[in-house]
């Protein structure tokens, strides 16, 4: 690896400055194979994180001059990618609704997903490529994408996260990471404390240490449709009370308002891979009931990484009280349970009252917030009103 740091800086500089538009055949949401709504201007960017991952970002600037518009960064959840923001019709998909309402829309694709399976010097076939958890998404990836949008637009951003995209944002803001470049944050199906999830499959996976076992046998990439992981998931699905005939409902809860064609498109494009180590970290969050950094399994390893025997926790009360926050959660959500959301709100009890908007949608489950045909009128309209209030 001699000489890598210097090469890293040179390549990073080149890649960060590299812009590809739809005039080129490039893997990303802008590529002809991925475009679902022709007629929208789309630009592809590549962002290098501090730990060397090359992240695909797609920009939908809408009509008119992008430099005069307010940028919005969309961050998807676990085991999916940026396509989830565009599964419905243009009038029902959040990314395009925002573009049509004069926002400059940026969509990030997390490391390990199909458009961001790249690194400056690691290959996805190497275990080292998958040596990360959501701690690294907080420290390196979210930090890089927020900074990139800020520097390219010269404006503070509105941030929109769903599921894991809310967890990383909350953790980052609590540590002061790039929070000065964020105008407001909208958190859909907010995830922080997840010890009360009601998905039977998820609880079984955490209870039986599926992530740890998968990691132990040397499977660094957690690919839900890959053979090794599929075998393990198949064994879990054989348990009484688990219905894997409808995995979306089994994992996310009984969604009220999904369009069948959107579900078909979803199933053709998802799921995506993540790091097995990331799944271990999420399972730890479920089992321990607190928002803490990755536990390396013994006190001495933790001491080596953190300088203390136990992993440090993220203190959400450290989130700046004047940061405008929009939280929307559902009564049927199996992953963002109402009890866990209440614990999150308790952590924000001293937040400025006029900077915290909380919306409860009784019949929504986890996927309704990104795929529900009624999400535009119920959630997105309120969210955009919130953005306008905090311009």
Automatic annotation (TrEMBL):
SUPFAM superfamilies: alpha/beta-Hydrolases (SSF53474)
A single GO molecular function term of this UniProt record: hydrolase activity, acting on ester bonds
Gene3D superfamilies in UniProt: alpha/beta hydrolase
Keyword Hydrolase: yes
Active site: 163 (nucleophile), 333 (charge relay system), 366 (charge relay system)
GO terms for biological process, alphabetical: lipid catabolic process
UniProtKB keywords: Hydrolase, Lipid degradation, Lipid metabolism, Membrane, Transmembrane, Transmembrane helix
Family per similarity comment: Belongs to the AB hydrolase superfamily. Lipase family.
Protein name in UniProt: Lipase
Organism listed in the record: Heracleum sosnowskyi
């Amino acid at each position: 690896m001699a000489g890598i740091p210097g090469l890293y800086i040179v390549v990073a500089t080149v890649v960060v400055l590299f812009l590809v538009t739809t005039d080129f055949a490039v893997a990303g949401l802008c590529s002809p194979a991925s475009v679902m709504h022709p007629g929208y201007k789309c630009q592809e960017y590549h962002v290098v994180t501090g730990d060397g991952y090359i992240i695909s970002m797609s920009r939908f600037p809408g009509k008119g001059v992008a430099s005069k518009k307010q940028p919005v960064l969309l961050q998807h959840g676990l085991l999916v990618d940026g396509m989830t923001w565009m599964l419905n019709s243009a009038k029902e998909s959040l990314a395009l609704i925002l573009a049509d309402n004069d926002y400059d829309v940026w969509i990030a694709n997390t490391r390990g997903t199909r458009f961001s399976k790249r690194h400056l010097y690691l290959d996805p076939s190497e275990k080292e490529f998958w040596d990360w958890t959501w701690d690294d998404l907080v420290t390196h990836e979210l930090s890089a994408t927020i900074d990139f949008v800020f520097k390219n637009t010269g404006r503070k951003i509105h941030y929109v996260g769903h599921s894991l995209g809310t967890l990383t944002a909350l953790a980052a803001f609590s540590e002061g990471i790039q929070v000065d470049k964020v105008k407001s944050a909208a958190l859909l199906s907010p995830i922080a404390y997840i010890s009360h999830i009601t998905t039977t499959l998820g609880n079984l996976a955490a209870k039986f240490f599926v992530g740890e076992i998968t990691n132990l046998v040397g499977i660094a990439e957690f690919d839900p449709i890959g053979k090794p992981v599929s075998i393990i998931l198949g064994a879990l699905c054989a348990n009484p009370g688990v219905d894997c005939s409808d995995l979306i409902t089994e994992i996310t809860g009984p969604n009220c308002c999904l369009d069948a064609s959107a579900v078909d498109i979803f199933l053709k494009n998802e799921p995506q891979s993540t790091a097995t180590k990331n799944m271990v970290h999420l399972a730890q969050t479920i089992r321990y009931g607190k928002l803490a950094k990755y536990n390396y399994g013994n006190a001495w390893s933790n001491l080596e990484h953190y300088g203390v025997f136990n992993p440090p926790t993220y203190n959400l009360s450290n989130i700046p009280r004047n940061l405008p926050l929009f939280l929307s959660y559902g009564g049927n959500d199996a992953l963002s349970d109402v009890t866990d959301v209440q614990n999150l709100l308790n952590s924000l009890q001293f937040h400025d009252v006029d900077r915290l908007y909380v919306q409860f949608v009784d019949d929504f489950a986890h996927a309704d917030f990104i795929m529900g045909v009624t999400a535009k009128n119920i959630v997105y309209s309120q969210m955009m009103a919130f953005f306008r209030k905090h311009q």
